[in-house]
Amino acid sequence: MAEQHLKFAIFGNEYQAKKSVSIETILAFLEKKKAEIYVENAYYDFLVRDLQLDVKVAGVFEDYNFDVDYVISMGGDGTFLKAASKVGAKGTPIIGINMGRLGFLADVLPSEIETALDSLYAGECQIEEHAVIQVEARGGVLAGNPFALNDIAVLKRDDASMISIRTHVDGEFLVTYQADGLIVTTPTGSTAYNLSNGGPIIIPQSGSLCLTPVAPHSLNIRPIVINDTAEIQLDIESRSHNYLVAIDGRSERMTEETSLVIRKAAHSIKIVKQRNQRYFSTLREKLMWGADQRER
User: Are residues 53 and 94 in the same domain?
Assistant: First the structure.
């Protein structure tokens, strides 16, 4: 069988040198496989200027201007989300190399890089499709990318008092949240900001979304899981007459005249997983379920 000549686009964290120590391993492996390698412009400059590496690539790219077989994300989950936002509806599968700490999305360890890429070339990996949500600003302008793999959050600004978030699901009134904010999360994002605010862990591909309040004024208000076919409308009131909308952590200021409509996007994000990886075992490992702290 003739060896595959694949094309790869590489995203990385250009702020922390220690998170790029494995890039030489990846570049050497792909060069041996005669792969075409493209590196995101800011990351390429970082590797050449700051790390002074001799980076041999087919080209560099900016924003969405790449057409490859696979994307490699070098960093933590934040870098992975950045790569996912650039992939968008292209459908390019993403491999996450975890150079950070926890890493639910970037789950390939530096010591597993060559094994993971060998499995990819051998066709022994599986591709998971993860739901994406999008937000529409009615009565206002949303400047950035409206799509989120993890979550879309409505938040109060700075030291402002809590905000009121009147919430409808499929046109039916749910509740007016009096809180610091509200998180609308996908199953993929349920282990991120949602989890730190007391929201539930949602199994991937479960067809669900979750609404989780941030520091609600009433202790009776709890997270609620809904079908991912639902349309969510949020009308926000604030003493400062504005608020923040954070889309996978990318924040924009909006005025309270702007309503937000959140729904499932038409496209999904494809994530490369090793065949021996299992979701529940990942949860046990990452969240240290069953670990006895007294043994330390």
Answer: yes
pTM: 0.92
Q: Where are the alpha helices (DSSP H) in the chain?
A: 23-32, 41-45, 77-87, 113-121, 193-196, 279-286
Instruction: Identify whether 2 is part of a domain.
Output: no
Q: Going by C-beta distance under 8 Å and a sequence separation of 6 or more, which residues neighbour residue 93? A: 70, 71, 127, 270, 271, 272
Model confidence at 272, pLDDT cuts 50, 70, 90, reads very high
> Do the annotations mark residue 192 as ligand-binding?
yes
pLDDT one-digit tens code per residue, 199-212: 999 999 899 999 99
Q: pLDDT tens digit string along 106-118?
A: 888 888 999 999 9
Q: So what's the pLDDT on residue 19?
A: 62
Residue burial 174-206, b: 16+ Cβ < 10 Å; e: rest = bbebbbbbbbbbbbbbbbbbbbebebbebebee
**Is 193 marked as binding a ligand?**
yes
Q: Residue 185 belongs to what domain range?
A: 132-266
| Residue 5 DSSP label | -
Q: For the CA atoms of the chain, what is the radius of gyration? A: 21
- The encoded tokens of residue 134 equal 């999008």
pLDDT at 202: 96
* Structural domains counted in the chain: 2
Q: Is 54 annotated as a binding residue?
A: no
Residue 220 clears pLDDT 90, i.e. is over it: yes
* Nearest to 269, CA basis, from 188, 153, 151, 206: 188
Catalytic residue among 69, 77, 228, 248: 77
191 annotated among ligand-binding-site residues: yes
| Residue 292 included in any domain | no
Establish whether 77 is a catalytic residue: yes
